[in-house]
Amino acid sequence: MDIHLKYTEKGSGEALVLLHGNNDSGAYFSKQLDAFSSLYRVIAVDTRGHGSSPRGTAPFTLSQFVEDLNFFLDELGIENANLLGFSDGGNIALMFAIKYPQRVKKLILNGANLTPSGVKAAYQTAIEAEYFILDRVFSRSERLKRRREMLSLMVNEPNITAEQLAGVSVPTLIIVGTDDMIKVSETAAIHSGIKGSELKVIKGSHFVSREHPEEFNAAVLDFLVR
């Protein structure tokens, strides 16, 4: 692996790895760290090219982030872990569970999607418009180049099939907001596609873990300790 991911760790016991969303960092989970670390070894990771983690030279794709996570768990000597992913982090967690099911104890997906079309048009259209504008001008600026690369994750990925989804056998909790940017139909497809998965809807937007941390944290811990 060409890089070493940066992370924040707190608590002891079973590993609970937190995966943040696009253009963010492990600090996104500031309202979860204390609550979860009372029972678990909580590890909030900065994805490649996000937060304090270096970009490296490998492809900037969700598939590469899955491989980064696999290497990261090896580095920390963690055979398997509970995964909680938000947004793009949820997509990474789901793709990881598909490819490395033996390394996942329980899976929590917050605001995940199967394909770019699973995002509501009002949001996805704006993302794609900015991406295609930057596609013409990004070479003029490293900052714009980085922004385009971030947007490419949401324009081109994920691409998770119904067959892949049906193969997920680990206990799974799906959490969304009542006014989430993910389509209701997309969340329903994930819920129905993963046999035995649980669905929790919390009043709020895509960012319910920040807006209503007590309800979010309680739902996650209830699922994990059962």
Secondary-structure map with pairings?
Blueprint: E1 7-10, E2 15-19, H1 33-37, E3 41-45, H2 62-75, E4 81-86, H3 88-99, E5 104-110, H4 121-137, H5 142-156, H6 162-166, E6 172-177, H7 184-193, E7 198-202, H8 208-211, H9 213-225
Parallel strand pairs: 2-3, 2-4, 4-5, 5-6, 6-7
Antiparallel strand pairs: 1-3
Please count the beta strands (DSSP E, at least 2 residues each).
7
What distance lies between the first and last C-alpha atoms, to the nearest angstrom? 36 Å
Superfamily (CATH H level) name: Alpha/Beta hydrolase fold, catalytic domain
Question: What is the name of the CATH architecture?
Answer: 3-Layer(aba) Sandwich
| pLDDT < 50 stretches | none
Averaging pLDDT over every residue, what do you get? 97
Strand % is 15-25%
Kindly give the count of domains.
1
Quickly count the helices.
9
Architecture overview:
- It is a single chain.
- This protein is α/β, with parallel strands linked by helices.
- It has one domain (7-115, 159-225): Rossmann fold, CATH 3.40.50.
- The chain is 42% helix and 17% strand.
- The chain is built from nine helices and seven strands; from the N terminus they run E-E-H-E-H-E-H-E-H-H-H-E-H-E-H-H.
- Helix 1 links the parallel strand 2 (15-19) and strand 3.
- Helix 4 runs antiparallel to helix 5.
- The chain is globular and about 50 Å long.
Task: State the gist of this model.
By secondary structure, this protein is an alpha/beta fold. Helix content is 42%, strand content 17%. It has helices at 33-37, 62-75, 88-99, 121-137, 142-156, 162-166, 184-193, 208-211, 213-225, and strands spanning 7-10, 15-19, 41-45, 81-86, 104-110, 172-177, 198-202.
